[in-house]
């Protein structure tokens, strides 16, 4: 995962480079560092933990003309200062920031003499990046051409920016399977980053590196080549304005802001889809090309896939299935791949497993749609079609508004494939739904948060749509409160999960379907008989300690409504436990490694 930044140009305060880096914190916050060059030479500063820790160590007067910076999500090697980037070669010549994983780092290590000090088996425990920079140093590279050729030896994924301390006006860049963008402002200052949102303060025009491309920046000129050293001329793209804003406004955390943005986000999506005729190509003729639909994603996006399956089967009566991307890559036996429509769901559009799954299916000739929140993302670029979700930037690690927008996009999509009339009704339904999202008792939700935050475990149950909401709710609780929350279909409670229940265990019961509620409550009463405390989110009255009563609405729309109180409860419980819900431990917003 990780995020990288590069700069070369007029003297600029190092603090400003750190500001740019902070826009990448969603990619990891285990440690951060910067290497800056000016007339006095080169200085590297690193710190463990979030970028705010690094910021405290940056001298105010430190100005740089060449800088590389990194925010880390630890993959190889613990989250220590020693493992923080940038890494410098032992001969002090090369400095690197790297996002990705060098798969053959052990083999590279065995080929170099400096290995004894940095070997992954040594006490210091060299990381893949430390070994790579040592490998580069050991190859005695003189020219950019040598640098490019050296990558024939490197296996894995990488977005890399290298400084050479003997060439302070230059940067060397390599990219494969990890995103990297480049831009220059009106004064010809050059910026590089893992996300073009980083450039927004300086310019909204940027260029995207493709895989196996390399760049040499020298004397404020950008020279891009492929692996055969053939020059490449690149088209520029423009950043959309709504990706620029990333402030909490008056909210204590991004997560709370994002929860409350959901009504606006849903309406914005409807307006955008109508104005831009986003769904016009997805009609019954389009559908007739396929005999099944598969939805693929990870984490919250996978839960959106599970709901999407139900939309497709209910609205279109065509077989559909939801697949976890990291597992689906091993499913080699898809029946009639060319008659299969794939929808890859991903907030970021950068999740490595989802991208890999897409590439495998594309090779088989399948039709692929990317449903993402980031129009310029890798997934969007590689798919045949894009369905934007218009949630606006989602910063908090736990996904909230992206989830409801994913559900609404899938609901609109399924209706579009049916008839125009159904689509028009669906638009109206979403707009009406958006006015109801916060029609629940906040005081009760606060009390539930207090109760859950005091417990070690929690069990979530539901049936059909409500089971998916239970899963997504349990994930929210787990991610940002560290309470061991598990979800199961209520019918499965007796097949194992009941063993977790003891006196006081919170049992979150999602029961919003009139036809199924009595069955769900039958199951929950078995848990109550064993000491569980019921927390019920339901359209029905139910005698229990905590009840969040929801209005009855169209069952297909309910998953967008019933998840909101749980998102809010998770947020509040996280605060009560003293956790920063925007940056929970061990997680990252964008998971760009397999
Ligand atoms: C991480 C995030 C989750 C997200 C998942 C998939 O685990 O913390 O919030 O659901 O990745 O991310 P994607 O960007 O593909 O939706």
The span between the termini is: 9 Å
Low-confidence stretches: none
Count of individual helical segments: 19
Proportion of residues in helical segments: 25-40%
Under CATH at level 1, the class of the largest domain stands as Alpha Beta
SSE blueprint and pairings:
Blueprint: E1 3-13, H1 14-22, E2 31-38, E3 41-48, H2 51-57, E4 63-72, E5 87-88, E6 94-102, H3 105-110, H4 115-118, H5 128-138, H6 144-150, E7 156-164, E8 170-176, E9 181-184, E10 190-193, E11 205-208, E12 213-218, E13 221-226, E14 237-238, H7 254-260, H8 262-275, H9 284-287, E15 292-297, H10 299-316, E16 320-324, H11 325-328, E17 340-346, H12 352-363, E18 367-372, H13 378-382, E19 385-388, H14 401-418, H15 420-434, H16 442-453, E20 457-462, H17 465-481, E21 484-489, E22 506-511, H18 517-528, E23 533-538, E24 546-549, H19 558-576
Parallel strand pairs: 15-16, 15-17, 17-18, 18-19, 20-21, 20-22, 22-23, 23-24
Antiparallel strand pairs: 1-4, 1-10, 2-3, 2-4, 5-6, 6-7, 7-8, 8-12, 9-10, 9-11, 11-14, 12-13
Helix pairs in contact: 1-2, 8-14, 8-15, 10-14, 10-17, 14-15, 14-19, 16-19, 17-19
Bound molecules: 6-O-phosphono-alpha-D-glucopyranose.
Report on the structure:
The protein is of the alpha/beta class. The protein folds into three domains: 3-239, Glutamine Phosphoribosylpyrophosphate, subunit 1, domain 1, CATH 3.60.20; 254-434, 3-Layer(aba) Sandwich (Rossmann fold); 442-576, Rossmann fold (3-Layer(aba) Sandwich), CATH 3.40.50. Helix content is 34%, strand content 25%. It is built from 19 helices and 24 strands. The strands form four sheets. Strands 3-2-4-1-10-9-11-14 form an eight-stranded antiparallel beta sheet. A six-stranded antiparallel beta sheet has the order 5-6-7-8-12-13, with helices on one face. α17 (465-481) links the parallel β20 (457-462) and β21 (484-489). The radius of gyration is 25 Å and the shape is globular. The N and C termini lie close together (9 Å). The model has no long low-confidence stretch (mean pLDDT 93). Bound molecules: 6-O-phosphono-alpha-D-glucopyranose.
